[in-house]
Amino acid sequence: MYAKLIKDNFVKLTSMAAIGTAAASLSLVSTIPPSFAAPAPSCIRVISQSSRSITVRNDCGNQQRVKLIIAWGPDSGCNVLNRGQQRTFTWTLGRFDRLDRC
Fold first, then answer.
1. Does residue 63 contact residue 80 with C-beta atoms inside 8 Å?
2. What is the CATH number of the domain that holds 95?
3. 48 and 10, same domain (yes or no)
4. Whether 77 contacts 67, CB under 8 Å
5. What's the start-to-end Cα distance of the chain, in Å?
6. pTM
7. Alpha-carbon gap, residue 47 to 36, rounded angstroms
């Protein structure tokens, strides 16, 4: 009698553990930070750079969407650069890290 009770409880516990593990795995996948964006293409050129500003130009054959990534500061929003367009970004905190696609 006790053996059956122990077996039934063991089966319930292992089922609950499996469900908990699956739920934890799904929550980890959904919390992957969006910082894994692809870098901006090489045809997005840095024209000039200082400690608090950077000027980039779109030398690609088409429109590009880029985001300025600032280390130790807020990133820019997504910016559309048309073919041949040049844009200067400025910031107050942090330092320039990279340009990403968005």
1. yes
2. 2.60.40.20
3. no
4. yes
5. 63
6. 0.63
7. 25
Residues with Cβ within 8 Å of 101's Cβ and at least 6 positions away in sequence, in order, are 37, 38, 39, 40, 41, 64, 65, 66, 67
Which residues of the chain are modeled with pLDDT < 70?
Answer: 1-36
Using the 8-state DSSP alphabet, how is residue 96 labeled?
A: E
Q: How many domains does the chain have?
A: 2
For residue 56, the one-letter residue type is V
What's the distance, CA 62 to chain centroid? Answer: 24
Query: What pLDDT score was predicted for residue 30?
Result: 44
Tally of CB atoms within 10 A around 83: 12
Structural domain of residue 69, as residue ranges?
Answer: 37-101
Contact between residue 75 and residue 37 where contact means Cβ atoms under 8 Å apart = no
Sort 68 into a burial class: Cβ within 10 Å, 0-12 / 13-18 / 19+. Answer: buried
pLDDT of residue 32: 45
* Cα 29 from chain centroid (whole Å): 13
The enclosing H or E element of 18 equals: helix 2-30
